[in-house]
Amino acid sequence: MKTSIATVSLSGDLRDKLEAIAQAGFDGVEIFENDFLIFDESPRQVGKMVRDLGMEITLFQPFRDFEGMPEPMRSRTFDRAERKFDLMQEMGTDLVLVCSNVSPAALGGIDRAAADFSELGERAAKRGLRVGYEALAWGRHINDHRDAWEIVRRANHPNIGVILDSFHTLSRKIDVNSIRSIPKEKIFIIQLADAPVIDMDLLYWSRHFRNMPGEGDLPVLDFMQAVAATGYDGYLSLEIFNDQFRGGSPNAIAVDGRRSLIYLGDQVKRREPESRLPVPVMPPRAAVEGIAFIEFTADKDDSPELEVLLATLGFRKTAKHRTKNVTLFRQGDINLVINTDQRGFANASYVVHGTTAYAAGLMVDDAKAALDRAIALGAERFQQPLDVGEIEMPAVRGVGGGLLYFLDRKTDLGRIWEIEFEPIEDGQNLADAGLLSIDHMAQTMKYEELLTWLLFYTSILDTRKTPMVDIIDPSGVVRSQVVENEEGSLRVTMNGAENRNTLAGHFIAETFGSGIQHLAFKTDDIFATAKALAANGFVSLTISPNYYDDLEARFGLDADFAERLKASNILYDRDDHGEYFQLYSPTYGEGFFFEIVERRGYRGYGAPNAIFRIAALRKHLRPAGMPRDV
What we know:
There is one protein chain. The protein is of the alpha/beta class. The chain is 34% helix and 24% strand. Strands 17, 18, 19, 20, 21, 22, 23, 24 and 25 form a 9-stranded mixed beta sheet that branches. An 8-stranded parallel barrel has the order 1-2-3-4-5-6-7-8, surrounded by 6 helices. Helix 3 packs across helix 4, helix 5 packs across helix 6 (145-155) and helix 9 crosses helix 11. Residues 624-630 have low confidence and may be disordered.
């Protein structure tokens, strides 16, 4: 599959953009005119730069306000076109994008526009060039790809074709099946962009809120299925106007872009096996049975405090690694690992981030296949030297540079605790607290990273995304989005922080990066669990009594029931599907915390309670600027 991206999609000068695009593995690049105009090198030098990076220039764009102009403006448009043709030939590209006219002076009429393109086609043919016509969603007379195709059809010139852009079609809710009747040889290139569904002016929506396919809400897959039905096998190119992307890392955005195209092509091929779209072969998205383990890194001075906290939560120390300073704690189906070894990646992570939950292991249907798919989609593989008797566990780098491991039950990976660990006696007399499994893990990241990791999870794992939710922090707003599977055995809440004054922002600042900020454990009886935790010496997060007074009135709760919630610091919520109960620990370290939940049919994550939980957690934070050892 041939992939391309427009330079307007990335930040930096033209050289920075081209290098990032090439490094991400794109085959081609669209040169956006303004990126060239503010660059100091000549068209010939830009073309050489692209070719030296192993790519080709797929398109020069845009050429505006061409068709339907009255004289003398019409003559000037052809003069402008000839100048653009000169530049293209110097640069070494044969295709220019002409977008539909938005000038108030433009005259309507399909035949008038077709005549203009027929003449332009003649001029282009003399130079061995091609012209692609794109219908802008806000075009003055032409804002529908069906009309653009009719103009191209009537122009009837081999050097004139259409350019289809998913945003322009989908933003106007045009029937994508109309694409199926366009001959593939008349589709000169496909441009792709997704976007969140927002009710606003089309031009403003397009110029500021586009994102990669799979990151938004538009039916881009339906669009691509219609394209594939034509037999199209040319370039898939990204044209993304996004304020956040233009201020981000060009390398990261380029990697996301190529991942989105490969994933989209894979989806099309699975829906349309007969499609001629050349797509890399890869395994299907990995089915996830659940979170197999969470691993913490710590040193010998920090680990005792963490171990005591886990003990009060009812976890028992059950095994030690045979060759490393790694200890396994277990309760129900939950496996927590504390790694204090002074070798390898765990120790390097501790040096940078301090005590953190730096790695997660997922139990999948096929670990090798999951790894192969992740690598095919641009994930960075992680490997380190193994001790004698250790099993190589497939892994890739994840959020914040942490690790995501894949295990399965069909290989020795399903017996890793028996093979690599030896049982030990805990020596504690604390009770099991009835914690059954990991309900969800919450990862905190910079807001601009949120779409990256959304795409990462949904493209590799058999998961879906939920709508974005605003989490209200007393010091700001945090954007939250969830990735989950159908069974609910994998739930990842991703919280994007925009300023360091929020609890999420504080966590990122103090741990020097994104990562897992909290773990939620599932119980089937929150009141019994709260009682067991109290007996173990667990100190729950204290919730303001004002919360419970309001809660009783808001939901019409029985006074005795509300009092039981208050006595155990249990938060409560309800949706159309059932009830939800939450119990929290205070913060540990630089903002990490634990949560215990009970679901009675409830499908959400207690977002209405977040402001009360955050306000209570903030009271336990180390004051900003205070040394870590105080």
